[in-house]
Design goal:
- This protein is mainly α.
- The protein has 6 helices and no strands.
Length: about 150
């Protein structure tokens, strides 16, 4: 009887050790997935940050160029323009410029995303696609990365 209980105890101990080992393996797998997920999130966040900074720089350059055009010298204005033209305030000019900047395309052509996908299929590099589509390199990378998901 004691021999039977001893064998039963050894079997239960072995089963317990196997269960603990399997749980340990699953926990390690879960931790590695969490690390991979965190790495992916950081990469996406960096891509978004780069994209937003690039857009901000482009918008600032656009507004600076627009302000330079609106701040011409009074002598040049009188010589170039007739005096009947109304004077547009800087705020109104910015609003008009931003409205013109946001106008959607009316003709049905391939979208920028579709163009980028077709160009990557044709073997263009990301830099070439960005130059051709007049977009930032980060924006093109982000567009293609989201398309792969």
């Amino acid at each position: 009887m004691i021999l039977f209980l001893l064998i039963l105890s050894i079997i239960f101990n072995i089963a317990a050790f196997l269960s603990i080992y399997l749980l340990f393996l699953r926990q390690n797998r879960l931790i590695s997935k969490e690390v991979q997920h965190e790495k992916t999130l950081n990469e996406i966040e960096q891509t978004f940050t780069g994209y937003l900074l690039e857009m901000k720089e482009e918008n600032e350059q656009f507004l600076n160029q627009f302000e330079k055009l609106s701040k011409t010298k009074p002598d040049e204005e009188e010589a170039e323009k007739p005096p009947q033209e109304p004077v547009v305030s800087l705020k109104t000019a910015r609003n008009l410029a931003s409205a013109a900047y946001k106008k959607p395309q009316t003709s049905r052509q391939l979208s920028v995303k579709e163009q980028a996908i077709s160009m990557i299929d044709q073997g263009y590099s990301i830099e070439e696609i960005a130059k051709e589509l007049k977009k930032g390199k980060t924006e093109v990378e982000l567009m293609l990365k989201f398309n792969q998901l």
